[in-house]
């Protein structure tokens, strides 16, 4: 949080997360290599290089599938949020596993000719005009490049340097990568499967990713709020607010605003954390500071500023109470602008709405 | 073969340029545009692979920060709107490619004995 960069920010939770992840990778490879050769059509003799290549390839596919399931799961059910916190380490590990898979392939199938092995990889199959026998390697190469870009830009520096929106757009490459992996498998190893186990694993994994993403997308669409009077946007009724928590609303331009109730007064800040655009409105206030549920960045909800010595800032918004309805103005104040909190009416009376004064910007 | 060689040479050139950008950016540029990087050196080698891969983006952002061209609000505008589109496109494309892959899948007798189609070359 705006202190000198270090290579990796470790803490006990991240150590535990990474230890479980590494143990999972080791267990998967062990099961694949030594326990299930018959289920995976390995009864026909294959040499260790091919066996290892398939093990690491399958492991990378499963890891990528899990990574892509974590995001929508966390959006659908907050109990999955802890899985999200350290997903970047998961992604870096996946890139290394995929790179190992590529290394085994490259150093077995393309390493024994007089030509350069990288040229051989691109040249060996050029049947781009047909589906059966299509050079599925290109999908694997594309997916690997995407994974390497995502892993190489996972340090916090890149978030700040590129800005979260650009960084997020760059990391949308994960979707293209997953499609490329699906194509790589569909037109590659799936063509050679005589037993249904791997096919079912593959179709089940991709199906889970698709269903979860579509469910999360549908859930997100229901949270639309319409602008009122062409300006002020309704957030929620005064009675809907809980001390120490926020209500989130979406503006017409797609931005989200989190309106917090702190000590009986309302304050509004952008819902997007300055770190990785995490949902600040899902965090809880402790000592005037809301803590981002994704990575623990903190902000004063009245000013949108992180406590010293940190320097992160998020935009603030004006709030007003009309009758029993809390409203927010869609024009964001520059990040770190203090806004006087607006008192929440103690007992809303639906029979006699009593508009309150507008908060100064 | 020519096309494959040209592609490999293109990738090599991309990485060489990336290395030059990394050398300049990580020794001079990063200190100019990010106060949190001043005095922090151990993490910088971790950035080299990223600069090698996306050096045009690095140069663009470096120029943007130096010339203060980016609007402050852009940093706080999440790109959720594109998320649904990306998820739907990915889903449709995966369904299509999996169906295509299963459709063209062929099966053949696994126990067929190998047949030598041509004479082997002299050793």
What descriptive keywords fit this protein?
heterodimer; A: 361 residues; alpha+beta; 5-stranded antiparallel β-sheet; disordered C terminus; B: 123 residues; mainly alpha; 3 helices; 0% strand
- The poorly predicted ranges of chain B are none
Mean pLDDT of chain B: 86
Strand content of chain A is: 5-15%
Share of helix among residues of chain B? 55-70%
Shape of chain A: elongated
Work out the radius of gyration of chain A. Answer: 25 Å
Helices and strands of chain B: which structural class?
A: mainly alpha
SSE series of chain A: HHHHHHHHHHEEEEEEEEEEE
Largest sheet of chain B: none
Characterize the quaternary organization of these chains.
Answer: heterodimer
Residue share in β-strands of chain B: under 5%
Helix and strand sequence of chain B = HHH
Helix tally of chain B? 3
Overview of this structure, please?
- The complex is a heterodimer of chains A (361) and B (123).
- Chain A has 361 residues and is α+β, with helices and mostly antiparallel strands.
- Chain A has helices at residues 12-35, 48-76, 81-85, 87-109, 117-123, 137-152, 156-162, 164-171, 173-186, 196-221, and strands at residues 233-237, 246-250, 256-262, 265-270, 285-286, 289-291, 298-300, 316-317, 319-322, 325-328, 342-343.
- The longest helix of chain A has 29 residues, at 48-76.
- Chain A is elongated and about 75 Å long.
- The mean pLDDT of chain B is 86.
- Chain B contains 3 helices and no strands.
- Chain B has 123 residues and is an all-alpha fold.
- Classes of the chains: A alpha+beta (361), B mainly alpha (123).
- At the A-B interface, helix 5, helix 6, helix 7, helix 8 and helix 9 of A face helix 1, helix 2 and helix 3 of B.
